């Protein structure tokens, strides 16, 4: 059985974390790093890091020496959640996971299991990294049915603490530690799955959902070790985030293809920022969708609530849902006559085009006095375009506009040129 689908990480033959991979019961990380991340080795040259996964082969050679007692293999629910996380990871990186014995030439091996107690430390996760080929990295998670704090691990899912523990175990097995000497301890869950500090410290809010997918610091560390998987056009479906067993958060690292953030169907108010490195709020959460600094998304579909979209410098198509939408531009270069955005489904009198954050043009005071047009709407062959200039003068003598976007059906009253002034 191949355990591969949409996201994945892998294990390098060189260790990047200490032999005691652990997180204490009080959530104080005791792990340290000993070397800078190195790229995982694709030993057979097939373009992927293929990892053999052992769920039930018994305790590994280091289980007892780590201080563990009471080994059990992962149960079906634990395997299912872990495989879902592996699948998500494979979408972002060239890593594939395979059940033990199903792949002839794996690049690395990892053994997972649980333990009932540890006589050396009160840790939730204890492991031993392999530094030798054909020797498995071992990662064990505390699972004690008598301890209420451990109960979620018996039936983990994408939103509970059990899913969070498996996410941390997966990252540990891929050589992504809780901290590095350079970065220090992760300062909030908004930055790392490993953190014990609330994401609200950074203005984000995941509504008490446990974090079960890599956050931006985790993603950056994975990127340092594994080749990104950015071929082809991707649709990132955001409307299901936090629903059912789906995780509440998503970090996107995509530098290839023509990609779409699809939030159609979400009934919550949305704030979607397409700029590289930005955070968006979808599904009733705050700041739960993060774009890596290298990610460029071309298109977006909004949902049913009151939404704000901020396009980026690529050629964007913004498809507006039935809710009330504002498309806000921050830079002139985010839509120009030569790289023209298109806003689809604009509803005059309901939706807004907000140009108030564009650079203040020469002669703004004269515009506000009604003495010359700063922006206008033209219709050519049935298509409507909003144009804006940064210099004063008549429309016939200003040359090409600095900003231009296609918005069919828009009227003067729908265009905010300042926070309190429209074209109408």
UniProtKB/TrEMBL annotation:
Q: What is the lineage of its organism?
A: Bacteria, Pseudomonadati, Pseudomonadota, Gammaproteobacteria, Pseudomonadales
Keywords from UniProt, A to Z, are: Repeat, Secreted
Q: Which organism is it from?
A: Pseudomonas trivialis
Task: Please give the Pfam families that the UniProt record associates with this protein.
Answer: Peptidase_M10_C
Q: Which InterPro entries match?
A: MetalloPept_cat_dom_sf, Peptidase_M10B_C, Serralysin-like_metalloprot_C
Localisation per UniProt entry: Secreted
- Region called Disordered, residue ranges: 1-50
Q: Where in the numbering of this chain does the Peptidase M10 serralysin C-terminal domain appear?
A: 250-395
> Where is this chain compositionally biased, Low complexity type?
1-26
Q: Does the keyword Zinc apply?
A: no
Which named protein is this? Answer: Type I secretion C-terminal target domain (VC_A0849 subclass)
